[in-house]
Amino acid sequence: MAGLFVFALVYILTVPIVCVPSDSKDAVVRQLSFSPASYKHAEFRGRSAGSPEQLHFPHGHQNNMRANSRPASASGPHNQGVDGSSEAQHEGFEIQQSLHNDFNSHFRPPLDRLSQVGRDEFGRRRIPHLRRRRAVTQETMNQTVPESQLGELVNFPQKLLNTAGRRFSLNSSSVNPEMFELTSGGVLSLGSGYRLDYEDSAMRSITMVVHAVSTSDPTDVVEITATLLVTDVDEAPVFTTEPQPFLATIRANSGAGYTIITLVAEDPEGAPVSYSKISVSPSQYEDRIEVRRTDVGNVRQCEIRTVGTANFDPDTITINVAARDRDTGGREATTTVSVLVGLRPPQFYSSSYQGAILENNGLDRTVNALGTSAKLQIRTKTFQEGAVTYTLANQGGGDSDLFSISNAGYIICRKVLDYETASPKLQSMTVTATQRVGNTDFSSTVGVTIQIEDMNDNPPIFNQSRYDATLVENVAVGTDILTVKAQDLDTGVNAHIDYSLVGTEDFEVVTHNTSSVFEGVIRIKR
């Protein structure tokens, strides 16, 4: 009968644990086993990625376990002994029960262990005291802010006295929540690089939900529905012509009516814009320059033109121009146009360029503008007739072995890139634009950086091929029994790992992220 006792109590439960990147189908499986029933043993065995196995009991063990759990008086084929008699089965059940009780008398956990797992000295489960959750307190408030406001927008503890001494968090917003920064003390501010804009209809009334949680009682929550009412501010017009700064050229013998440059300014409130000449330097050319408004459709623009017939000396002429809204009065913006008498090299439309390309890109792939799906194009403005050619150099001044540039200004990748081995991952280069006029080359340069970006192309790898843990039977629900770790060679969100158990309802795994270290904590579920 001793052999029957062991056979009836010892069984193996096999459950796979799956470790996957958060947004990938790549997976690594570790096999979890528990045995025996009285003092369970947990282990992880490494196996290749594939379809996880289902919950499995060795052949015959389920029948023996199920038979042992039936009362002696039950009827049916499972209650028959080897000789077909229910008495033999009854005798076997009593012997096994006796041996099981004797086993528990020798191996029963100490009282301190029983208290840890939520049971008293008689093995009865303790019923924890359930704390009653308070109702959430609702508050509403309005705050008027001008669109020009920067920095602090709302101080919630000052506006709502019942929120003092609480921890604040932004729960939702009707506009991009990244626009705002909310301290734990309840001060709401505009984030760096963001501004309110009354002309954007979505920003005229911004609704957000803020939670203020008591620092001493997490069930004590005040939910604040706050509305920011953004008011209009008369803003000065903005010059929108590109590229900037404003550069131009004229010939020494330019006669009257030559258009030096055309400028466009727009008023944020949509008011009409008027233009005027402020000054010309050297002052001897004051009478040779005029600023005239020329409308094209609904766009009010101005042209800076030459008047008179006198020649211009080889020099640089500076022209200061004003743009004013509402024709008279209102707000004013000023700008400067630098005019070179003679020839000038090409001017880039941007003072610097940023691009990005994914690893495993393939040959002859065009680099995208950073943060967009649009192709990055290097563009220049020319001031005289003649084609522009582009060249690309690395930081050392030599030809780049990774990238080249077309005559249209597009940057092409010449090699298949691997993020994990690429160094540096941010490539810094210089583009030179050259225009030949006669036998003279006119050149200018601009800096370009290209970010090599990571793809989610690496499966996670467990730190160990096997994990072991030992626990007693009747462990309390929610008890942590094992922690597993895996690593991913990818970066950022591609390195985020989720753990899961399949094939069991008795255990669960919870993923924890501590300083980008992802762990799976396995605990008793029921």
Automatic annotation (TrEMBL):
According to the UniProt entry, its GO molecular function terms are:
beta-catenin binding; cadherin binding; calcium ion binding
SMART domains per record: CA (SM00112)
What domain of life?
Answer: Eukaryota
Question: What are the boundaries of the region Disordered?
Answer: 45-89
Q: Which part of the chain is the Cadherin domain?
A: 167-239, 349-462, 463-526
Q: How does it sit in the membrane?
A: Single-pass membrane protein
Location in the cell = Membrane
Sorted alphabetically, the Gene Ontology BP terms of this entry are:
adherens junction organization; calcium-dependent cell-cell adhesion via plasma membrane cell adhesion molecules; cell migration; cell morphogenesis; cell-cell adhesion mediated by cadherin; cell-cell junction assembly; homophilic cell adhesion via plasma membrane adhesion molecules
Q: What is the lineage of its organism?
A: Eukaryota, Metazoa, Spiralia, Lophotrochozoa, Mollusca
Its cellular-component GO annotations read: adherens junction; catenin complex
Q: Which PANTHER family does the entry link to?
A: CADHERIN DOMAIN-CONTAINING PROTEIN (PTHR24027:SF422), CADHERIN-23 (PTHR24027)
Q: Which residue intervals are annotated with compositional bias (Polar residues) in the record? A: 61-87
Please name the InterPro entries in this protein's record. Cadherin, Cadherin-like_dom, Cadherin-like_sf, Cadherin_CS
| Keywords, sorted A to Z | Calcium, Membrane, Repeat, Signal, Transmembrane, Transmembrane helix
What does UniProt give as the signal peptide span? 1-19
Protein name per its UniProtKB record: Cadherin domain-containing protein
